[in-house]
From TrEMBL:
Gene Ontology cellular component terms for the protein in this record: cytosol
Record GO terms (molecular function): metal ion binding; phosphomannomutase activity
Name of this protein: Phosphomannomutase
Location of the protein in the cell: Cytoplasm
GO biological process, one term: protein N-linked glycosylation
Homology family: Belongs to the eukaryotic PMM family.
Ligand binding (Mg(2+) 2): 230
Annotated alpha-D-mannose 1-phosphate binding sites: 22, 129, 140, 147, 185, 187
EC number: 5.4.2.8
Keyword vocabulary terms for this entry: Cytoplasm, Isomerase, Magnesium, Metal-binding
Keyword hit for Zinc: no
Originating organism: Hevea brasiliensis (Para rubber tree)
Chief location: cytoplasm
Length: 241
């Protein structure tokens, strides 16, 4: 029987690493992760809330992995038990959170051209999570086909990057981080609440290997990938012909 290597954890991003963005992980990937868990401690860290991560990795995700960090670790589980939470509302206060009015105006100003998606947006542009705000220029209710199309459009027109630049300047006094992740959105949270937040729960590990796809500056894996506490491994999307 295999013996786990002590003091080492393999920590994985979800979207774009363990599964395609917002899609269910393949049976082959899930089986691989369970086999890996037999020899090392395994954790997952995603920007999404637990319900979305559960849709991708399974309803028993908190039992299937040693550590599960949703919302960058602001909601943390170990061995199936909740070990920590952090609230954006408590941290910033109600009045500061109400400043989201300009985001809607910005979506309309920078947004998609008139021909894109027949000028039809898919609602839920701003999603309040426990520890962050998620902003989607196209709206989170779009179909998978529209997700894929927006991702291609965004790579050319830099919709999310332009919005982030404006918001970073406007809300500089709040010391917020703006992090692009997935296909259609970006996250907003206090500085230090990126994925390195989860590392506070991993002090017992001398060796932390992190695997993620958005490791470039501005991507939501960048800070933890570059952290002195981790050994970073970039994951590249498989190219299809």
């Amino acid at each position: 029987m295999a013996v786990r290597k002590p003091g080492l954890i393999a920590l994985f991003d979800v979207d774009g690493t363990l599964s395609a963005p917002r899609k269910v992980a393949t049976p082959k990937m899930l089986e691989f992760m369970q086999q890996l868990r037999k020899v090392v401690t395994v954790g997952v860290v995603g920007g999404s809330d637990l319900s979305k991560i559960s849709e991708q990795l399974g309803k028993t995700v908190t039992e299937d992995y040693d550590y599960v960090f949703s919302e960058n670790g602001l909601v943390a589980y170990k061995d199936g038990k909740l070990i920590g939470t952090q609230s954006l509302k408590t941290f910033l206060g109600e009045e500061k959170l109400k400043s989201n009015f300009s985001i809607i105006k910005l979506i309309k100003k920078i947004g998609l051209n008139k021909t894109f998606f027949n000028n039809s947006y898919r609602g839920t542009f701003i999603e309040f999570r426990s520890g962050m705000i998620n902003v989607s220029p196209i709206g989170r209710n779009c179909s998978q086909e529209e997700r894929d199309e927006f991702e291609k459009y965004d790579k050319v027109h830099n919709i999310r990057s332009k919005m982030v630049s404006v918001l970073r300047e406007k809300f500089a006094h709040l010391n917020l981080t703006f992090s692009i992740g997935g296909q259609i959105s970006f996250d907003v949270f206090p500085q230090g609440w990126d994925k390195t937040y989860c590392l506070r729960y991993l002090d017992e590990f001398d060796e932390i290997h992190f695997f993620g796809d958005k490791t470039y500056k501005g991507g939501n894996d960048h800070e933890i990938y570059e952290s002195e506490r981790t050994v970073g491994h970039p994951v590249q999307k498989k190219q299809t012909k």
